[in-house]
Amino acid sequence: MKVGDRVVCIRSFERQERGVNNPVRGRYYTVRGVFNGDAITLEEIINPKKKYMDAFDEARFNIIAFRKLESYKATNNAFNFNIVEEGLEIETPQEETA
Question: Across the 98 residues of the chain, what is the mean pLDDT of every consecutive 10-residue run?
Answer without folding.
Answer: 95 81 94 94 92 81 93 50 49 49
